[in-house]
Specification:
Blueprint: H1 4-17, E1 28-29, E2 41-45, E3 56-60, H2 67-74, H3 76-83, E4 86-91, H4 115-131, E5 138-143, H5 145-156, E6 163-167, H6 178-185, H7 193-203, E7 212-218, H8 227-240, E8 248-251, E9 255-261, E10 267-274, E11 281-283, E12 296-298, H9 303-310, E13 326-329, E14 332-334, H10 341-351
Parallel strand pairs: 3-4, 3-5, 5-6, 6-7, 7-10, 11-12
Antiparallel strand pairs: 1-2, 2-4, 8-9, 9-10, 13-14
Helix pairs in contact: 7-8
Length: 356
C-alpha cells in the first residue's frame, strides 16, 4: 500500500505536470451564481442544439486536474453535442486547496447550506433557471476527490439529483482532517456498514427519496483503495434498504457490474469493478470523444458513455454509428442514432421544409 509521504509527493509532482499544455477549453465561465461561500469557479457547456427542458450533468474533476482538462479527456461536452444536455463543471482553486482537490472531508464544506457544497448547489440553480433544465434530470459524477465531492452533493442534496456516478471516490462523512482523509484513501479506519449508512442518512435527515448511484473503481488502484468502493456501496445500499446480494451480475473482459434493483426492476445501486486498472477514470480512445491524460486511463471502457446511458441520456452506450444530428424543430434535438435510416432522412427533409 502506498505510504502517506509517497502519496503527497505523487500529488505534488502531478500538480506541476498534469497538463503542461492545457487543451483549448470548450467551456465558458458561469458568472454571478450566488454568494459562493466555497469560493469555487464554475464552467459550463451549452450545446448548439439543446433538447426541450434539457438534462444537466455536473462533473467534478480530480486532484491536480482542471475542468477543461477533464472535459477534454472524458468527452462529456462532445457527448452533450450529440444528445442536447448541458454540462456544468465546478472547478477548485489553489487558494482553497494547493492540489486543486475539492475539500470532500472538511466539515464546513460538506454540509447542506455551507461551503463548497452550497457553492455547487448555487451553480446548479443558476443553470436551471437560465436554461430551463428539467429538474427531474440533474445528475452528478466525479473522479477521486471529485468523486468524493459528487458523493457529498448526492448525500446533502438528494432532492436535487436523479442519479450519480462516483469514480475512484470515497464515502461521505468519514474524515474531517487531512491526515484522516489520507487514512481513508488507504482504507484505514473506515466505519462499519451500519455506521456508513447512518452518516449518509444524517446528511439529509428530511430526505424522502434518494438518487440512484453507480460506483466505479479500478481493482489495481494504489491511490484510493478499492475498499472505499465497498464502503460507498454500504452507504447507498443502506439508504435504499438493499441488504441482499446483487440482483444481477454482468461480466465483460474487464468490467464486472453488480446491480441491486428494486421490485420494479430499476437499478438503484450498481458497482463497476474494473480489473487491472489503477487510479483514474476508465475511457475508450476508440471513441473519438475521449483522450488519454493523467488519471484518464484507456481500458477500452467508456465510463462517460456508460454512465450517460444508465441515466437515460443516450439510447446506447456503444459508439454511435451516425454522427450528424437532425433538427426536427427549433430547440428540439433529435437523436439520429435512435432513428432508422428512413426516419433520419425524413426528419432532415421535414427540417428543410421539403416534406410534410
Amino acid at each position: 500500500m502506498r505510504s502517506l509521504s509517497d502519496t503527497l509527493e505523487r500529488l505534488a509532482r502531478l500538480n506541476r505536470h498534469t497538463y503542461p499544455h492545457s487543451p483549448a477549453s470548450r467551456l465558458t465561465d458561469l458568472e454571478a451564481f450566488g454568494s459562493n461561500p466555497g469560493a469555487l469557479v464554475a464552467k459550463l457547456y451549452v450545446p448548439t442544439f439543446m433538447a426541450e427542458q434539457p438534462a444537466l450533468v455536473v462533473v467534478l474533476h480530480g486532484c491536480t486536474q482542471t475542468a477543461a482538462g477533464y472535459d477534454n479527456s472524458s468527452g462529456w461536452s462532445r457527448l452533450a453535442d450529440e444528445f442536447g444536455f448541458l454540462v456544468l463543471y465546478p472547478q477548485q482553486i489553489q487558494a482553497n486547496n494547493a492540489n486543486l482537490c475539492f475539500n470532500w472531508f472538511l466539515p464546513d464544506d460538506i454540509r447542506r447550506g455551507h461551503g463548497e457544497a452550497l457553492s455547487i448547489r448555487q451553480m446548479i440553480e443558476t443553470v436551471v433557471m437560465k436554461h430551463g433544465i428539467d429538474r427531474k434530470r440533474i445528475f452528478a459524477t466525479g473522479l477521486s476527490a471529485g468523486g468524493a465531492m459528487a458523493n457529498v452533493m448526492l448525500a446533502t442534496y438528494p432532492d436535487v439529483f436523479a442519479g450519480g456516478a462516483i469514480i475512484a471516490g470515497l464515502p461521505y462523512g468519514t474524515a474531517s482532517t487531512i491526515p484522516e482523509a489520507f487514512d481513508r484513501m488507504r482504507a484505514h479506519g473506515l466505519p462499519q456498514a451500519a455506521e456508513l449508512a447512518g452518516l449518509l442518512a444524517r446528511a439529509a435527515p428530511s430526505a424522502h427519496s434518494w438518487p440512484t448511484v453507480s460506483v466505479w473503481h479500478g481493482m489495481a488502484d494504489k491511490t484510493v483503495s478499492p475498499t472505499n468502493a465497498v464502503a460507498l456501496l454500504d452507504q447507498w445500499r443502506g439508504v435504499h434498504k438493499l441488504y441482499g446480494e446483487p440482483t444481477t451480475t454482468e461480466r465483460s473482459d474487464r468490467d464486472t457490474v453488480r446491480m441491486w434493483k428494486d421490485e420494479t426492476g430499476q437499478v438503484l445501486v450498481s458497482y463497476h469493478a474494473i480489473s487491472g486498472m489503477d487510479h483514474g477514470a476508465p475511457i475508450d480512445v476508440r471513441n473519438a470523444r475521449e483522450k488519454v491524460a493523467p488519471f484518464m486511463i484507456d481500458v477500452g471502457i467508456s465510463s462517460t458513455s456508460r454512465i450517460a446511458y444508465e441515466w437515460g441520456l443516450t439510447p446506447s452506450f456503444d459508439k454511435r454509428q451516425v454522427d450528424t444530428p437532425a433538427v426536427d424543430s427549433p430547440g428540439l434535438y433529435v437523436h439520429a442514432h435512435s432513428l432508422g435510416i428512413k426516419e433520419t432522412i425524413e426528419a432532415a427533409l421535414k427540417s428543410a421544409g421539403l416534406l410534410k
